[in-house]
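Checklist before submission:
- one chain only
- standard amino acids only
- sequence pasted in full

Submission:
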Amino acid sequence: MAFPQAKVEHDLLSAISPDSTWDAVIVLASDVNSIDNPKLVQQIMQHQKVDARIGRETVLMVSPDVAGGRLVFAPVGSLQRDMDDVRRIADAAKQAVLMAREAGAVNPLLVLGALPDSPAFVHALEVAYLAACQALWQPLEAREALNESEIEPIRSIGLYSASPVDCDWLIAVEAGRRLARDLCGTEPERMSPPQFAEYCQLAFANSAVKVSVISDDAILRRDYPLLHAVARASTHVERHQPRVIRLEYTGQGTIENTLLLAGKGITFDTGGADLKTDGHMAGMSRDKGGAAAVAGFMLSLAKYQPKGVKAIAEIGAVRNSIGSDAFVADEIIPSHAGVRVRIGNTDAEGRLVLADLLSHLREDALHAVSPSLFSVATLTGHAARAYGPYTAYVENGAARQADCGNKLCELGDLWGDPGETSRLRREDYDFVRPRSKADDILSSNNGPSAVTLRGHQFPAAFLCIASGLDKHELSSELPLPYTHVDIAGSGVEGGDWQHSKPSAAPVTALAARYMPKG
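Returned file contents:
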């Protein structure tokens, strides 16, 4: 999984000189006046005399006096308004690095102009690097079928900074993001449940993360009954059979925080017996984005190896197929936690998978140091309807008291991986209440979540109950902070689930919060 490596430069004059090892200089700035280098200013202003686009859009200039003879000036626009954030710089970096690539650069250097004196831009250079890597990523199928060095030619990206930059941290985060994009963005046969597990095993081979995979049907049926029900119609097809992937990282030193993450890995979602129609099945190979992000974050931990952190992840890689053995609405299926779940809609399958994973992680949390639980999933259209391209963090009482969601949102803003927080309310629990003595909880209604009131919040209430986490609220003897992370709106760029690039959200926000720099 090669990708452009980050390398810091502290001497700008040397870095931009024609005999430098860099072969393109990318300048990201609000305007020419904000560039603190006379040589670059002179080059840009000379070209401005003959090209009126300079300063208004990203432009490549032939400049023999700079590294590689290539100078890209990418205006970032206003950074002073209340609505402006570091993504202005990220967007400009994406355009500029693609232009440099098309011009033949393989080792471009990023240079930032002066920025507002605001904490909002303190990580702007690192965000530019991550954004450039996002823009340069090509799908795994393309890399396997074509010449990888031709479609992903850029080998390194220079970062000019007068201050220290932790490139090891950046590279670890990007390694995780790249794994997340590969797992999420690959078509359903190449990344079927068994191959999803194999790709994880390959990614974590000889790393600081221990990998174990459950493939035995009898064990899955017994220990993950809801997950197995979702997979039931796929079990007779060997290449589609379900997997549970467990990833474990234990940092050196005294453990101060334990993270427990459940990832929804629906490798293809037909909707099951409640079949998706009217073209809504396209893009459903990306319904594994939550599992992909969890695996990506775990790889970041494996690469950076922070001390004092323990992390356990369980990923349910499942295909929600339709067939003679498909589970159907009205079935009552006990969860791993012993909660009798009445199925309301087979297209609300992700919460079933997550409930069993969370129940196992709940048992791990009972004996853990400072545990925090998360479920990460492309779960509801309502999250996208409510928050657009932002990750939704839905907290239980203990997580809210720990300020979990707000801290992730604050750091996400600084790192270009933004989110919004939601609260669980009594209406959410009432929505999934049992309607008879035959069951303990209803999995969902039978309408689209996007047009259901509190459509991304009530599934979190379901997850609390079905996993047994409702026994660990603030008033209990052992409160367990739990945050449900819905990336249905943030999981791909631009909202096109069939064609857009996976965003790897919320890997960066999680790393910023729980993978402190050395």
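Reviewer check: The chain has 18 helices and 17 strands.
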